[in-house]
Amino acid sequence: MARLDEQDFDEKRLARRARRKKSQLAAYITLGVIFLVVVGVLVFGIHMLRKSLGVKPNTEEVAPEAVQEASEEPAVIETPEETEEVQEYTEDELMDEVLGSIISEMTLEDKVAGLFLVTPEQLTGVDTAVKAGTGTQEALSNYAVGGVIYAPKNIKSTDQIKEMLETTATMSKYPIFTILSEQSGVSDSVRTTLGTGPEGEITDSQTAMDAGNKAGAELFKNGFNFAVGPDMEVVENGEFGSDIDTVKELTSAYATGLQDAGITSCGYLFPQKGDTTSGMAASESTREDLVIGEYEVFKNAIDSGIGAMMVSNVSLPELTGDNTPACLSDKIVEDELRGALGFEGVVITAPLNEKAVTEYYTSKDAAIAAIKAGADMIYIPENFEEAYAGLLAEVQDGNISEERINESLRRIYTIKYADRVSRISSGG
Q1: pLDDT class of 183 with cuts at 50, 70, 90
Q2: Which of 52-61, 358-367, 386-395 has the lowest mean pLDDT?
Q3: Is the CATH number 2.60.120.280 carried by domain 91-425?
Q4: Distance between CA atoms of 47 and 406, rounded to whole angstroms?
């Protein structure tokens, strides 16, 4: 398979196709005009001939020989070289064609791998990755993961991380998410290195948008295209405080700022945070509590067009009836996030290497449960190879349909190809 973008998918091919369709339409219009001109000339010639011979018009009269001869020797008009049916595409239709083309050509192995978001260490097996080399190339050839997640230990300088990310992107068979983990919670040293920290205090929607836009511009410049942020927690010591209206306003504006700069914003954590790193974290919140609280924050971000949402590992027995982590529960993902709040973007699990998951699920079982619950992408499984192999086998055995995998891939690639399809549609 040929590489997409700079590899498999050739963006220029789509642009040429769009231009070719426009050229075809112009050719058919020209053909029609020529035909009308020829007919007009014939009619005028017949009229002048009849006039010169003194013949009066008679609608019942048979056509003169001149007309008959003209009909026997029709004008020869060249047809366009290509006879492909003319069709104008809207941007949505062009996106559908792009997605259909990409997904139909992917192997099942690549489709399943494309649902995983992993660290460079999980991908290559090294202790700390600071450069993309032959190990990265080999790993990406075997596992066409959907994205790679970078932490402070991977970032030494702007030149170093930019080269690492750009090299990784060119090595991937398909467009890949390059992710800064929990952007709002990264170390001050990383914020200083990348220049993503706000220049002033965030006090209203404008300053929040400016901060998000500044952070996004710096991330984009250094090779990132995805950020886990903003933090949408509503608590006293949270990033944006404990007032629902304030958190709702500031998180939505910050996410918009990120996305305007070319970074996909992933809000976290839906519907609540908790101490999931040390074991099960069960919340006593009822659905009514969430509706008048956290749901307002997430719903506002969804209505503003946020691209992705990370679902937590907190258990919500008042909603689910058991202690299933939220990201592994269809009642939370499908009924609440997609159903009640109307989210149509990419749903990502919280890190599946947290003890709230690992104490109760194998890597394989957690990955399978996440996809069955409605998640689109699996974020840092405890054991990537085990999770991947287990999910692949589940699809091969028919317990999860390939169409279900395609459904998630369509959401993922809608984000990955949005800018390119927009440029092609506008003739850019």
Answers
A1: low
A2: 52-61
A3: no
A4: 65
